[in-house]
Amino acid sequence: MVAEDDEKQAELVRRYLEREGHAVRVVGDGLAVLDAVRHREPDLLVLDVMMPRADGLDVVRVLRAEDRELPVLMLTARSTEDDLLLGLDLGADDYMTKPYSPRELMARVRTLLRRTRRPAAPEAVAEDPVLRVGALVVDPERHEVSVGGAAVECTPGEFRILAALAAGPDRVFSRQRLLEELHGFDRYISSRTVDVHVMNLRKKIERAPRRPERLLTVFGVGYKLTDPAKAAARRA
What we know:
Elements: E1 2-3, H1 7-19, E2 26-27, H2 30-39, E3 45-48, H3 56-65, E4 72-76, H4 81-90, E5 94-97, H5 102-115, E6 131-133, E7 136-139, E8 144-147, E9 150-152, H6 156-166, E10 173-174, H7 175-182, H8 191-205, E11 215-218, E12 222-225, H9 228-235
Parallel strand pairs: 1-2, 1-3, 3-4, 4-5
Antiparallel strand pairs: 6-7, 7-8, 8-9, 10-12, 11-12
Helix pairs in contact: 2-3, 6-7, 6-8, 7-8
């Protein structure tokens, strides 16, 4: 929701938000904001401070008094430290002064939405945490791996690397990225550590470890996990 009484400013913000894929509702005064939020609470409120009927500071004060936790990004022509602190103390999540860069505004919107993303409703079907790449199945919650239904025993380090690869099938992971999965886990780690884990994993998940079909090397870059059946179909 965009709360802005300047029509040109409101239209500019609306267009930028819609380009980012958001559905946008524009309201032009403080009381209208409160009515609209009570009717259907948005995922984020971009709120101008200087508005008729009730200013943005009063709007935030009322929303927080009603225990509404929607993220609020305030926009204002005021730029003194006291004004900024007052807005944040009342419960605003972020603050931008006019004139502002629309691109920076969009970046801050993305950051706020990531930081305050709401959990799925209770009635929603929970996302399956199990990772599947063809016949290879990795279950992070149970710490289990299987290939074609046959259980595969993995060390903790091997499991971390395999789970990271399975979460992004066909994506190339650099050795450095895979090393990050091992930090705080293996006491002594290096790029060679990753290579050893990959070599051992191939012995466990490949039919012919010297001619791997699942866990592939991308020379000069790193490793990727792929579904051999899909790869064969693409070649065909």
